[in-house]
Amino acid sequence: MKGGFRLSMTWLHTWSGLIIGWLLFAIFLTGTAAVFREEITIWMTPERGFTAGPVRAIALAEARLASVAPVASSWTITPPDARHPSLIVDWVTSAPDGSLTRHHEVLNASTGKPERIRETLGGDFFYYFHYRLEQPDRRGWWISGFAAVAMLLLLTTGVIIHRRFFKDFFTFRQDARPKRAWLDAHTIMGVLALPFHVMITYTGLIPILSTVMAAGIIANYAHGKSVYTALMDYTPVRNAFLDQRQLRYVERKPSGERTALAPLGPIVQYALERWEDGRIGRIDVSNPGDRHAVIGVVRHIGDQLSNQPERLSFDGTSGQLLASVRDQGPIVTAFTVMYGLHMARFADVGVRWMYFLLGLVSTAMIGTGLIFWTVKRRAQYGAIVPFGHLLVERINVGIVAGLPVAMAAYMWANRLIPGDLAERVALESRAFYTVWAVMIVFAALRPLNRAWTEAWTIAAVAIVALPVINSLTSNRGLPGSLGAQDVIMASVDVTLLGLGALCAFGAWKTAKHGARGVVEGVGTRNIVAAGETAL
Amino acid sequence: MDPLKSIDTIARQFAMGNPLSSERASGDRFVLGVTSRVAAAIFGGYALAASSATFFAVFLPLTQVEATVAGTFLAIVMYVCAAMWAFAARSAWQAWLGLLAPAAIAMALVIISGRAA
User: Which of A97, A158, A166, A487 is buried deepest, with most CB atoms within 10 A?
Assistant: First the structure.
């Protein structure tokens, strides 16, 4: 029954690949973009200035917070680093009735004055979309978690159905029948980057794991509650688990007695000496101005592979060290390291580029798989093609070539919507969804071979235009940024040009092969005729 | 075009070259069998994954935190294997049985041991 097993795995790969492939394509492409989310955010807020060293920045932030909110529920200071050149302060104030108000400011790190920058989600939009999928509550976590398990299933079945795993490695029949070429492209990208595919998919489950697979935590930490109660009110159960992992920080309720906060300078010095060459990632103060204030200093997340940097807690009045939190035990460390591997916050520029390029390979693997699905089946039909098949072919265009257009539209919107418009954050994301929907409809209305060429052309134009728009709407355009060694700005522009060229290549390729490439053997006229018959 | 006929075409296309042995017969039986297997893979697979997470969290000879995390790691692997089993099994019934029986045994052991908090 060995052959039977492989056949049923092929069947499973084919069908689950089709059903979940579109979602996976979107998750992988936006996730790939999110590798450079800090850089995209900088591109999307070009009015943001350059800033100074972190120690001085922290002192400026402290002065700013002490003047705007001497008594607050919390303060958070994010000093600048190489990828993220701004000083950010966040604070939360509580009214007597207990309601909380959040404040957010970007400070100029040489003057300490707030900077006026446009409101935008920046690169975080792609990051959030990548796992929340714009769903309320945590529904998006469940959907993307399910997609990740399906991806693992696809990778496993994909390996099983490739009996000639190593021989296929060296086979790319570019000029053979298109059906073969699509399959070979899909296989090569699958095999070549298999370790990356597996790593990024498995570790992708880690951040959401305690929510989507809570059974073990409930079994050990529900403490006498029924499973139903534990599921309905899961936060205390999860906190009991985190408490035992010692991941929750020192928490104290406000005393109501006002005391001045200990100066941050000596505490910052202490932390920097303790970490030798380490950097400070964040400082957060709970209940500043109260006798029960706690000052937390978190090490920079780029200083270690793990996503759980050491955190020091200090008494807010005396400045004495209260506790330090670190990973405990090999399996918990494996957990935080896998978390870190997915987030790639440890990565320097070179490794970050590797993540980006391999992410593109994963995305292209999914895309070629989707196209192969239709090309292979198209060959099996005569002149009459079922409606379902035509639908799949069109949705493929709308997703594979339409999503890049939508992502470009989001960045267009960033520059075209006035900087001081109140609703601009919502409008930016609406541009993304609207354009995506338009592209899907567009793909459905055009003849298939032209739909591909036209969609890729639109994508190429939309993306290549972005550096142009940048130079028209900011003073950090490409020629200037290259001259001024404005590395991040110039890199984003050059990368966009490269991605635009990639889309143009797609347009050229589909135009050249046209009917032959995407619709093996059947003339375009027949397809249109068949489509009309089917409709 | 008649939408019902269209759905029927898709169903036949779905069955084309289908290797799932008990559903080789086309028509209603095929659709029913595949639906059942899909449900087994998703829900039965989750049940098996969750109960194995529980089983390992409770029985692995590690500290409570380590066992909990290790159990969750293993649960992902179980889920993937479970989904493959759902489509490799000889019949849809067998697919369900092969998922729910070990899940039930694992949960029974956890409950009998009285070690869950």
Answer: A158
Total structural domains within chain B: 1
B11 touching A, CB under 8 A? Answer: no
pLDDT tens-digit series, residues A256-282: 888 889 999 999 999 988 888 788 889
Q: Answer yes or no: do A386 and B65 touch at CB < 8 A.
A: no
B76 within some domain: yes
Query: HEC string of A146-211?
Result: HHHHHHHHHHHHHHHHCCCHHHHHCCCCCCCCHHHHHHHHHHHHHHHCHHHHHHHHHHHHHHHHHH
Residue B80 is nearest to which of A153, A241, A244, comparing CB atoms? A153
Q: How far apart are the first and last CA of chain B?
A: 59
Which chain B positions have a beta carbon within 8 Å of A16's beta carbon? 83
The pLDDT tens digits of the residues spanning A222-267 come to 888 888 888 888 888 988 888 777 666 677 888 888 888 999 999 9
Q: Are A26 and A54 in contact (CB under 8 A)?
A: no
Residue B7 CA to residue A422 CA, distance in Å, equals 47
Q: Testing the interface with A: which of B76, B109, B110, B111 to mutate, by most A Cβ within 10 A?
A: B76
Average pLDDT of the residues in B87-91? 89
**Interface with A, mutate which of B22, B64, B72, B91 (most A CBs under 10 A):** B72
Look at residue B21 and tell me if it is in a domain: no
For residue B110, give its domain range: 39-117
